[in-house]
Write a structure and sequence with these properties.
The protein is α+β, with helices and mostly antiparallel strands. It folds into 2 domains: 101 residues, no CATH class; 151 residues, no CATH class. It has 7 helices and 9 strands; from the N terminus they run αααααββββββββααβ. The strands form 2 sheets. Strands 1, 2, 3, 4, 7, 8 and 9 form a 7-stranded mixed beta sheet that branches. The protein has a two-stranded antiparallel ribbon with strand order 5-6. A hairpin with a 4-residue loop joins β5 and β6. α3 packs across α5.
Length: 292
């Protein structure tokens, strides 16, 4: 944990408190005591006020004040920490000490002043998986990035289809304290060694191999898997997209680097965490069947 400035949230722990609180308060709107108890347990906060827990009380007090939910315990503990000058001194120089003091005295004024009416906490924007594991997706290459040299339609593969296999949908909880509340879902795909003018039948994948997505110079090997962000596929996205699920392949066929570890979830997740990420409009630049 560390701090990089004198502001309340210029601190790793404070940022963690903010992330956890915002998620739990968004999904648990009527039980502030439960949220506080679970946060105290997770951050190992003691019942008595001390300088080690001051950042926790400060950041939580700011958040509860923002949403009109300031409870007496958080208020009193934060005020006690301020009065005892916890985290107020010991910065790089006297100037920073004065900055921190001003920040905490401003917080004190907000805590003892009139509180805002209670309001809802917005739910976090989450990455969603619009496809399932083993889905075979025919992706239409019409969403090509335009550059200063060529228009999208100048590429020979513009308007053609490639095939993707969703090899993994990975869940990442929005809250570590209560992972059951909500989670991001990240899709990872591999590209088949095929390109065509029309959407093919699902049976074609039985005889297809996977094509390397890019060469990883650092590891001197090809990567066969990449993350694919659903935000680019959202209908509200300003550019046209066209992707169709043509079926679900349950054969268990995986790209080379994943096939070896197909029954070891931990290793697969480690490999996926090291893979590149791309968006569908970049697929056309990879060397698939002789693409330039």
């Amino acid at each position: 944990m560390g701090a990089w400035g004198t502001a309340i949230f210029s601190d790793d722990e404070a940022c963690d408190v903010r992330t956890e609180y915002n998620v739990m308060a968004a999904y648990i709107d009527d039980d502030d005591e439960l949220i506080l108890q679970k946060m105290k347990e997770y951050f190992h906060v003691e019942n008595t006020v001390n300088d080690m827990d001051a950042v926790f009380w400060y950041s939580l007090a700011v958040l509860q004040t923002k949403y009109g939910r300031l409870c007496e315990k958080v208020k009193n503990n934060a005020l006690e920490c301020i009065d005892k000058r916890y985290t107020m001194d010991g910065w790089f120089d006297k100037k920073d000490n004065l900055k921190r003091e001003k920040v905490l005295l401003n917080l004190k004024d907000k805590l003892i002043g009139e509180q805002l009416p209670r309001r809802k906490v917005s739910k976090p924007k989450l990455e969603r998986a619009i496809w399932q594991e083993n889905d075979i997706v025919a992706y239409h290459l019409v969403n090509i990035v335009e550059d200063e040299y060529r228009k999208p339609s100048d590429y020979w593969f513009y308007g053609k289809y490639i095939l993707l296999k969703i090899v993994k949908v990975e869940k990442n909880p929005a809250s570590h304290i209560m992972p059951e509340l909500a989670c991001d879902k990240y899709m990872y795909c591999s590209v088949y060694d095929w390109i065509g003018d029309d959407i093919p039948d699902i049976s074609i994948v039985d005889n297809l191999n996977f094509h390397p997505i890019e060469y990883n110079e650092a590891r001197d090997q090809h990567d066969y898997v990449a993350g694919i962000y659903s935000t680019v596929l959202n209908p509200s996205y300003k550019r046209k997209h066209d992707a169709v699920v043509i079926g679900n392949d349950t054969s268990g066929k995986l790209p080379p680097r994943l096939a070896k570890y197909s029954y070891n979830a931990d290793v697969i997740e480690f490999l996926l965490s090291r893979m590149p990420k791309f968006t569908p409009n970049e697929i056309g630049y990879y060397n698939i069947n002789g693409m330039p």
